[in-house]
Design a protein that fits this description.
single chain; alpha/beta; Growth Hormone, Chain: A; Rossmann fold; 2 domains; eight-stranded mixed β-sheet; four-stranded antiparallel β-sheet
């Protein structure tokens, strides 16, 4: 029999491991925004509260070691079913990239209740049961305190081990199966007779399922999918032959590669950034920094289309997820000499580098639609300016439904507090706005000249020139590290779009 304190340690670890896996498991359908996290945490806490309450009542009525040891076994079976039932339930409930906050709250709430409440509820019943079985009148407080201490230590282990080890190295599904096997083993060791043998054998199918199930999401055009330390990554080959990288929610393209590096500026915004070197005063030596490189679309196209005409062009690229970088080399035709790649958070990199650049591009997204708030603030753009050479250019991609949206207005107003000249262009499609700024006036490259300067960019320049105009903020407010409700503004923008409102 497992010592009671170790018993509550491992069940406490299983609770948090399940919660950490839940956040990863639902990300491909609902993302990991604050809305989703708040729903997940609230539901888990509610399930634990109910489990504590009912567990205490059942322990008083039937204080049985057999019932106690059966709880982790039943929980283990529930957890073993999560990768199967969960995929079916969440794929049926998915809100998609344009899901409104209300839809996301309701649908994710429904899915989390159906998939994750049963195991968390059952595990929460363990602590009051153990206390009831061990405590005597004279030591109830000491017994309860030591058991809750061990359970909390287990919760710490259940948070760190999946986050740092099993999820990045094995995957969410495998972590769930490990948790399932551990719980079945834990309960089975406490049972006696033939029941122990039967229950321990349940570990076999739990382990075997690991090798016979696919990834989290399936699709006909998917050629690769995996979970990195940061997100769910999916490589798709579309019917038109283009290869795209989808992250988490799966509604938008994070990186793209086309046959023979073909450009299509009417459908994607990446091409417009290739025109920025032509807007610099000094073209002999151009140092570029791309923050949020993904699989390397912008750095690669800069190397293919601009470097032949600017031999002094050198690119540094920052990407927080090293697996996205590696997928660029494996699937997107990115070359290692396209850019010097740094694996880091963009804000951390810019705050700590000593390098100066002529062009700094920010194209960062979390869960497809949210720009990380700390990359939109006054402090961020102030740090950007300290690493920008005189006459240099800063550019940022903002995903929005209109120029009048609070998100665009606020980011533009924030940039204008740091740079005297700010411009905007609706590039690629209706949902992408390029905000460009400098300490000097800027002008779009003349389209009539591009046919001579760089013929492959001629069409891009003809689309870009009439769109490039000074930005004059009409609304919004300056974003700071203290107040930058980027997720909220994005959510409200989607709500207004879905309901036919404005802004």
């Amino acid at each position: 029999m497992v010592p009671p304190h170790l018993f509550v340690f491992f069940t406490g670890a299983a609770v948090m491991a399940t919660e950490m896996c839940a956040s990863r498991f639902i990300a491909p359908w609902f993302g990991t925004s604050m809305i989703v996290w708040s729903v997940l945490i609230s539901v888990v806490l509610a399930a634990m509260s109910l489990g504590y309450w009912l567990g205490g009542r059942l322990a008083d009525r039937r204080p049985s070691w057999k019932i106690l040891f059966s709880l982790p076994v039943i929980t283990g079976l529930f957890i073993a079913l999560v990768p199967f039932a969960g995929e079916f339930i969440f794929s049926s409930l998915t809100a998609g990239i344009r899901g409104t906050p209300v839809n996301i709250i309701v649908l994710s709430f429904t899915g989390i209740i159906a998939v994750f409440v049963p195991p968390v509820f059952l595990l929460a019943m363990v602590s009051p049961f153990v206390i009831r079985l061990l405590a005597r009148a004279e030591n109830t407080g000491r017994t309860a305190g030591s058991l809750y201490a061990m359970s909390t230590l287990g919760s710490i282990a259940g948070t760190l081990v999946p986050t740092l080890l099993t999820i990045p190295w094995l995957g969410t599904r495998e972590t769930l199966f490990l948790s399932s096997g551990m719980l079945i083993l834990l309960g089975g060791l406490g049972l006696k007779g033939k029941g122990r043998l039967v229950l321990l054998l349940l570990i076999v199918p739990a382990a075997g399922w690991t090798f016979f199930t696919g990834g989290i999401k399936q699709g006909n055009s998917i050629v690769h999918q995996e979970e990195s330390a940061y997100q769910y990554l999916q490589v798709q080959i579309r019917d038109n032959g283009s290869t795209v990288l989808i992250v988490n929610e799966g509604g938008g393209i994070q990186s793209i590669a086309r046959t023979e590096n073909r450009l299509d500026p009417a459908s994607t915004y990446y091409e417009s950034y290739l025109l920025l070197p032509y807007m610099l005063n000094d073209s002999d030596s151009i140092d570029v920094l791309v923050i949020g490189a993904g699989a390397g679309t912008i750095p690669h196209w800069l190397a293919v289309y601009d470097r032949p005409f600017f031999p002094g062009l050198c690119t540094d690229a920052v990407e927080i997820d090293s697996r996205a970088t590696e997928l660029g080399y494996e699937w997107f035709g990115t070359e290692r000499d396209d850019a010097r790649v740094f694996t880091a958070d963009g804000r951390v990199f810019i705050e700590n580098t000593s390098n100066l650049y002529d062009l700094i591009i920010t194209d960062t997204y979390s869960n497809q639609i949210y720009i990380p708030f700390h990359l939109t603030t006054l402090e961020y753009f102030t740090a950007i300016r300290t690493h920008l050479n005189s006459g240099g250019i800063v550019a940022m991609n903002v995903n929005a439904v209109s120029e009048s949206s609070d998100l665009v207005q606020s980011i533009g107003r924030t940039v204008a507090r740091v740079f005297p000249y700010v411009y905007i262009a609706n590039v690629g499609n209706d949902l992408n706005y390029m905000i460009v700024a400098s300490d000097r006036p800027l002008y779009a490259p003349p389209a009539d000249s591009m046919i001579c300067w760089n013929p492959p960019l001629d069409y891009t320049a003809r689309l870009f020139e009439p769109l490039f105009m000074p930005f004059r903020p009409e609304d919004g407010f300056v974003l700071t590290d203290n107040r930058a409700p980027v997720e909220f503004m994005t959510d409200m923008m989607i709500v207004r779009e879905a309901t036919g409102g404005s802004r």
